[in-house]
Write a structure and sequence with these properties.
alpha/beta; TIM Barrel; eight-stranded parallel beta barrel; four-stranded antiparallel sheet; binds D-mannose
């Protein structure tokens, strides 16, 4: 596998030169975060980003993510134009040699937490999700007060989105995902790009918005919507592992041999109650996810694609983007690399 780290671009307090010093890491997952959803990333801008990374000896291995415009998820009239822009972006990335695109299909919010910095007994901080706390959040006030890593929404914009999603139940969202994939997969495939949908985090509906990519059956359904090798998955142990309903080892055994896992996100969470969890250090002793067992199943199933440590804790006084400090992700990277090698896999 290719061990990489996520890098948020020039504004990220973690610099490429430091990422490069983590053993094995020779590439990143990144995106042109400054480009609004629905607009095309030009070849020039993509190449400029690639060159910026190359100056520090890093490749742009994975795009994480090309954002999916809400019109596409809602099935609104503007969706064809937004789909066209998404497909052109994937094509431009492929032409520049960036061959994996991670994306998600979560309405309105991406990953959601109710606290971004809970302090553990060792003084480190990490994020947590408690469903009872989520239920106390009043969406009608907008998103400013919401402790989550997500875009801010004014009360008016939020009301608009809630209204737009009123008719979008889970089945409708599936239809809209199918409509999207039917149009983008052929373009991506022709450009030599693999698509890797990210599971919903957490994997259950929030604020009344449906969430559909939540576990084994939904992974199988995504693959069947467009049965092409370029239509694939991001195997995210933190998102899938947030619920005891998912058997991650069984999922790894089922999907790795299909060749449709195109990206791996590895992190650990500890269940703390019904639909509640806290993020913990990567090793299996600290959480509810047995990363060693999952990695063994992936290696045995033949998965050999890009992998990154996902959220880390904040340790050693580091500050920065919640979940995306350098230190704990570097520790996680080494744990993953060790488990990979012990399982007989290649780490590159
Ligand atoms: C969280 C990440 C997600 C992921 C997107 C993919 O830290 O794993 O934000 O990048 O859901 O589109």
């Amino acid at each position: 596998m290719d061990l990489i780290l996520r890098w948020y671009g020039p504004d990220d307090p973690v610099v490429p030169a430091h990422i490069r010093q983590i053993p094995y890491v020779r590439g990143v997952a990144t995106a042109l975060h400054g480009v609004a959803p629905g607009l095309v990333w030009t070849r020039e801008a993509i190449v400029k980003r690639k060159e910026r990374l190359a100056a520090d000896g890093l490749a742009w291995t994975v795009t994480e993510s090309i954002p999916v415009h809400e019109d596409i998820k809602i099935g609104a009239p503007g969706r064809d134009r937004a789909i066209e822009a998404w497909a052109r972006t994937a094509e431009n990335l492929g032409a520049a040699g960036v061959r994996t695109v991670c994306y998600n299909f979560m309405p309105v919010f991406d990953w959601m937490r109710t606290n971004l910095a809970v302090t553990a007994s060792d003084g480190s901080t990490s994020s947590e999700y408690r469903h009872e706390d989520l239920l106390r959040i009043d969406l009608s006030k907008g998103m400013e007060a919401l402790p989550a890593w997500a875009e801010a929404y004014s009360a008016a914009r939020m009301a608009e989105l809630v209204a737009a999603y009123a008719d979008v139940d889970a089945e409708r969202l599936w239809d809209n995902l199918a409509y999207f994939l039917e149009r983008v997969v052929p373009v991506a495939a022709a450009a030599g790009v693999n698509l890797a949908i990210h599971p919903d985090d957490p994997p259950w509906p929030i604020f009344g918005f449906p969430r559909i990519v939540t576990g084994e059956e939904s992974f199988a359904r995504v693959l069947s919507l467009v049965d092409h090798p370029a239509n694939g998955l991001t195997f995210c142990t933190g998102s899938l592992g947030a619920t005891p309903d998912n058997d991650l080892v069984a999922m790894a055994r089922r999907f790795a041999p299909t060749g449709r896992i195109h990206f791996g996100h590895f992190r650990n969470v500890k269940w703390t109650g019904d639909r509640s969890f806290v993020e913990v250090a990567h090793p299996r002793a600290f959480g509810s996810v047995d990363l060693v067992a999952v990695i063994r199943a992936l290696v045995e199933g033949g998965f050999d694609g890009p992998v990154r440590p996902d959220h880390g804790r904040m340790i050693w006084g580091e500050t920065g983007i919640p979940g995306y400090g350098l230190h704990d992700r570097a520790l996680g990277a080494m744990y993953i690399a060790g488990a990979w090698e012990a399982a007989g896999g290649r780490v590159g």
